[in-house]
Fold this protein.
Amino acid sequence: MHDALAGATACVTQDGTLVVVYAANENDSPGKDVLMCTRSADDGATWSEPTPIACSRFSERPACVPDTGVHEVYPGTLTLLSGDRVLCTWDYYVSNNVEQGRALLYTISEDAGATWGEQHLIFDPSDPPDAELQENQHLGTLRHSILPQDDGRWLLPLTVAGNRSLSAGAAGYPGVQLYDPETGALSAVPELSPGREGCHPALEHPILMAVRGADGAVLAMGMGNSGHNQVPPEPPSAAPVLFSPGPGEQFEEVAGFPANVECPPGVELSEWDDDGDRWGRDVIALKDGRMLVACESHAHPNHTPL
């Protein structure tokens, strides 16, 4: 039995196939314990029967992820790689994931999601790759697509789930990392990583995502915070957009981008949820060379696209 979707993620292959991955409960397990994949070849009019991504099953987890009796397989993102390959990331939540750390994994499909390859571990929390990462500090999760680099590495826009007030200077925060799938090496990107020397001064909070246009230019979306729902309250901070004209070029802040979405008329401040300021922004590289920045404000009970 498969029930209760969680964190569905999607991508479109070069031939137009829609691929969707989500987490599901299999065999009455105590938590969502496998990723399911479904595909559409007719723009979403019909969908294939969902099939499990076998290597994502909790029973197939790496040794660094304990079985505490309470767990969940959580989908990260789908990213289209060169050669029309589809990259799927995920991690495992367990009841004591703060103490034990959390693994970040991936698998690749060579046939638009029809079949999937082996499981690969990006990060073992018991073996930190960076002096600024503490032992058993989890690397975070991926909520937006990976940005493939020309040299074959992947730019990982990591966020720390469960600690949304984490800001610059927090001990152990991984920031943006470059991952080499050939060697398994991780390396920080200081310019896009709050708390690290050399970080862009506009970034008080982590980068949410980055995209590359047809001309090679990169647009990176930061995370803002209206501050009022934090304990203790934080000063408001902007949600910056940074632009780089090409690989190796410095990022500059894009002027004039709205810092935060104000509390709508008729909504009590105490009920205003600013998740849209912090998490609900997306950047999309359009085929005509333009870049679309979208955000979502969360005003209980309605969501407002902007």
In short: The mean pLDDT is 75. The helical segments are 97-100, 275-278.
